[in-house]
Amino acid sequence: MSNISRRQILQAMGKGLAVFALVPFVGCDDSSKKASVESGLKAFSENLVLDGEVITGAHWGVLKATIKDGKVISSVNALQNSVSNPLHSTIADLIYTPTRIKYPMVRKSYLENPASPKPELRGADEWVRVSYDEAIALIAKELKATYKQKGKEGVFAGSYGWKSSGNLHNSRILLQRFMGMAGGYVGVTGDYSTGASQVIMPYVVGSIEVYEQQTSYPMVLDNSQVVVIWGADPMATLRNAWALNEGTGLDFFEKLKKSDKTLISIDPVRNMTCDYLGAEWIAPLPNTDVALMLGIMHTMLKTNQYDKEFIENYTQGFDKFSQYLLGKSDGVVKDSAWASKICGISAQKIESLAKLFFKNRTMLMSGWGMQRAHHGEQTHWALVTLACMIGQIGLPGGGFGLSYHYSNGGSPTATAPVVGGINLGNVSQGGAEWLMQGSENNFPLARIADALLNPGKSIQHNGKTITYTDIDFIYWAGGNPLVHHQDTNTFLKAWQKPRTIVVNEIYWTPTARHADIVMPITTSYERNDISMSGDYSNLHIVPMKQLVEKQFGAVDDYKVFCDLAKAFGVYDKFSENKSEMQWLEEFYNQALTQSKGLLLELPDFAKFWEANEPLQFEIPAESEAFVRYADFREDPILNPLGTDSGLIEIYSQTIEKYEYKDCPAHPTWLEPIEWLGMKDKPAEFALITSHPALRLHSQLANTSLRKEYAIGDKEPIWINPKDAQAKGIKTGDIVSVSNQRGEVLAGAFVTDAIKPGVVRLCEGAWYDPQEPGKVGSICKNGSPNVLTLDMPTSALANGNIAHTGLVNIKKYEGSLEPISVFTPPKGA
Ligand SMILES: Nc1nc2c(c(=O)[nH]1)N[C@H]1C(S)=C(S)[C@@H](COP(=O)(O)OP(=O)(O)OC[C@H]3O[C@@H](n4cnc5c(=O)[nH]c(N)nc54)[C@H](O)[C@@H]3O)O[C@H]1N2
Ligand SMILES: Nc1nc2c(c(=O)[nH]1)N[C@H]1C(S)=C(S)[C@@H](COP(=O)(O)OP(=O)(O)OC[C@H]3O[C@@H](n4cnc5c(=O)[nH]c(N)nc54)[C@H](O)[C@@H]3O)O[C@H]1N2
Ligand SMILES: [Mo]
Which regions in the chain score pLDDT beneath 50? Predict the structure, then answer.
């Protein structure tokens, strides 16, 4: 790897290509062929490598693919990381899997009569192959019909999802760019990841906090004495990042493991990270962390072991909050004994944590699973308040961090120019004003089923009223809502409401199977792109050269939307008449221009592209020494936070004014709708639906990695030995997991790495109904969202509550049908 500073770059360009046999690209349309000639790029740029190594990238890393006779045979990390990532090996599987969608397909009843397309047959109907041109014409015709009947309020293009990395082939942005130019659309606000936290944090600390640079990993290594990993599993979740993963987070945790710091993991599951670090495992009942934190804070208050100066100078509202802690406002003293009864951790332990945190330089690193829960806003608010009492926010290695486990949030930022990317189009240049209007009916993403089912209904959201529109046309590109959304059976009903559903997909995912029109999309290895590594570090600019020919009839999302744009007369605006390579050159040139101001010498685009190597940038000492909130701590008057008071708000007067019953004005313990401590439990076990270590959500489920975790060809469910014994369940048994919302089959994994009373079934298992198309069918593969609740966290954030919910579990004695979701559906 070449560290791009000054002259080294030119040397780096000389190292190079182990290239080989080349053939011209196929599948580009005429304009792009002409354009690539015009742009004057050399053979490497215009031809595929048939034998050799090519650099590319994905959410899971910067990768080097080995190609033989025009086929990818293996892929490995292209960077030098100390911790390996099993996801790196998946490129060949992803290209050649039999789950690929080969050609444009239309659901039979839809093709027969698009005006009355029998939406109840989605997921059950046969598929009919149509030509690419027919598919484009059909989508265009029906979209125009919907615009005419329902206006832009009838068209949904929120299309949430993790798609593939790459700054041009960004399916969701391409979709919305097209829709904005074609006539407008209803979109969404927020996301599934941090739905609660990103809405409450601006009231508390003045920024969304969850996607921001953390006190750097080096500062933690140098200064923290106690590191608490609170509801996070970074050794699993740092295998992926939003752009290309530079792997620095996993490397950091390896160093942390070797350090002599006190490491604690607070999680109902003894997760991968806890095991890897050999950390102390403290296991609260799911959804009870707020009670645990209140118990710790009450102890600190009572023993007078908290930082009064910090509270005084940097926060506001502690007086009201302390009244609550002491029970003066509600008659309930939040002492360690009270907390212990709720969270299941001994009072003694709670008290010892209070002391440990206060006496040592302590970093509280929190994951997001615990805010993906009923009243999830409270969890991080309570955590920040605890960090305020400890008083180390803004000190090296102290305070709290909400993104150490995600996209390498503690990776220091390099001095790097930033590569451009495709955007929604220029709204200010007239003629596209609907892009602005398109947003007025946006609703919080996780309310999608509610929105589809209840047009005209108004909900409260973050101090505003939002009214759902009557959605009749859905276009999804780059996400898997049939798998990612909570309460699949309610979602299936909602999914029957629109007249038309178009899905751009690479694979026959559950979502593609439940669409009307499916467009076959290329993997990111079948197109040219560019990206950067490091969501926070900007560590590399990475060329993503096409590895292999487009498979079957697969096309790029870009081409689909170019052709739809033609049908709507907005092609010039949409494409700016640029070819793929011209876009990439333009994005790269944005970085090139910036690089001058940074006194960096970058190669021109052609040289960069031909070099087939990531450009790496240097990390300056001041980035290594970054301490979040240091400037605020230094001078809260000169550097106020973006909150109402400029201080950390432990009590929010704005939230008080909203008068939401489910989101009071200071961190509060509120019982979740379903939890282990409730009276009259509707089911016996708490269900946790963590992010899977060997997938990215539902992505990679169709690779050979599945063999490493599937049990009885199903998603594994973790269950404690005590519970397993009581139910007569052994590892390897097929179990039925059910509640009032649905039933799934899963493969039992009996382990003491989970707290008794709790089971874990990871999100992302492909929904595989025993009776396709039937609402309420058993899922043969164990998709956890069949069991989760589709309710908002509160009226403040309306986030999803995927980690809240109870289930029953028993050995399955019925007949077993083979898994079918990895075989293309009938007609395909
Ligand atoms: N129970 C439960 N549910 C959860 C969660 C949980 O913790 N528990 N977590 C939630 C969270 S945080 C998230 S982020 C969501 C994730 O939900 P999603 O982001 O929807 O999940 P993915 O499996 O990444 O889906 C991405 C899809 O895009 C497709 N794709 C990839 N590249 C391209 C491309 O270039 N073009 C097109 N057209 N398609 C492409 C992939 O094949 C895949 O089907 O799930 C949420 N759901
Ligand atoms: N390998 C891999 N990496 C990923 C992803 C993936 O799918 N696979 N997804 C990416 C995305 S989009 C996101 S949003 C992030 C997700 O990152 P997170 O949201 O942090 O991940 P989760 O697995 O949902 O939850 C983390 C931990 O919280 C624990 N937990 C659940 N409920 C509770 C609780 O009530 N209290 C406590 N203390 N702990 C609890 C779980 O057991 C789990 O170990 O990861 C990203 N990275
Ligand atoms: Mo996420």
Answer: 1-20, 24-30, 33-34, 36-38, 40, 427-437
pTM of the model: 0.95
How far is the centre of ligand 3, averaged over its atoms, from the C-alpha of 612 (Å)? 31
With tokens 């397909």, the residue in question is 105
Q: Does the annotation place 480 within a ligand binding site?
A: yes
What's the count of helices (H) and strands (E) in the chain, helices before strands? 32, 32
Q: Give pLDDT, residue 377.
A: 98
**Which pLDDT value is given to residue 827?**
86
- Determine contact, residues 378/235, Cβ cutoff 8 Å: no
- The DSSP string of 423-455 is -S--GGGSS-THHHHTTTT-EEGGGHHHHHH-T
| Residue 472: closest CA among 446, 491, 487, 451 | 451
Q: CA 735, CA 744: separation in Å to the nearest integer?
A: 8
> Can you tell me the distance from the alpha carbon of 568 to that of 143, in angstroms, rounded to the nearest whole number?
10
Q: Tell me the chain's radius of gyration from C-alpha atoms.
A: 26
Calculate helix-pair angle for 132-150, 557-567, nearest 10 degrees.
60
CA-CA distance, 82 to 62, in Å (whole number)? 14
> How many angstroms separate the most distant Cα atoms in the chain?
78
Structure tokens given for 701: 């489920």
Residue 94 contacts residue 78 (beta carbons within 8 Å)? no
CA of 211 to the centre of ligand 2 (A): 15
Q: How far apart, in whole angstroms, are the C-alpha atoms of residue 181 and residue 158?
A: 15
Which atom of ligand 2 is nearest the CA belonging to 693?
1
Q: Which residue has the tokens 């999302």?
A: 557
Q: Is the CB of 59 under 6 A from ligand 1?
A: no
Give residue 17's pLDDT. 36
Distances in Å between the Cα of 645 and the Cα atoms of 53, 199, 648 are: 56, 17, 8
CA-CA distances (angstroms) from residue 103 to 95, 555, 557, 593, 828?
Answer: 15, 9, 14, 41, 8
pLDDT at 2: 39
Q: Hey, how many other C-beta atoms are within 10 angstroms of the C-beta on 308?
A: 11
Ligand having the closest approach to the CA of 245: 2
Angstrom distance (rounded) from CA 77 to CA 94: 16
Query: In this structure, what token pair is assigned to residue 37?
Result: 């000639």
Residue nearest to atom 20 of ligand 2 (CA): 367
Give the pLDDT confidence score for residue 682 in this predicted structure. 98
User: How many angstroms separate the alpha carbon of residue 605 from the centre of ligand 3?
Assistant: 33
Give the number of other CB atoms < 10 A from CB of residue 698: 25
The full DSSP string for 584-629 is: HHHHHHHHHHHHHHTT--PPPHHHHHHHTS-EEEPPPHHHHT--TT
Residue of 350, 362, 482 lying closest to 821 (CA atoms):
482
652 and 461 Cβ atoms separated by less than 8 Å? no
* CB of 163 shorter than 6 A to ligand 1: yes
**Closest ligand by atom to 800 CA:** 1
Find, among 534, 83, 78, 539, the residue nearest to 273 by Cα: 83
* pLDDT of amino acid 666: 98
- Listed in sequence order, the residues at least 6 apart from 464 whose beta carbon sits closer than 8 Å to its beta carbon are none
Q: Report pLDDT for 23.
A: 52
pLDDT tens-digit profile of 80-131? 999 999 999 999 999 999 999 999 999 999 999 999 999 999 999 999 999 9
Tell whether 162 is in a known binding site: yes
CA distance linking residue 716 with residue 83, whole number of Å: 25
Concerning whether 230 is annotated as a catalytic residue, the answer is no
| Confidence at residue 39, expressed as pLDDT on a 0 to 100 scale | 52
Distance CA 142, CA 8 (A): 55
Q: Label residues 157-166 b or e (16+ Cβ within 10 Å = b).
A: bbbbbbbbbb
Task: Determine whether 192 is an active site residue.
Answer: no
How far is it, in rounded angstroms, from Cα 269 to Cα 751? 10
3-class SS of residue 541: strand
* DSSP summary character for residue 153: G
Length of the chain in terms of residues written: 828
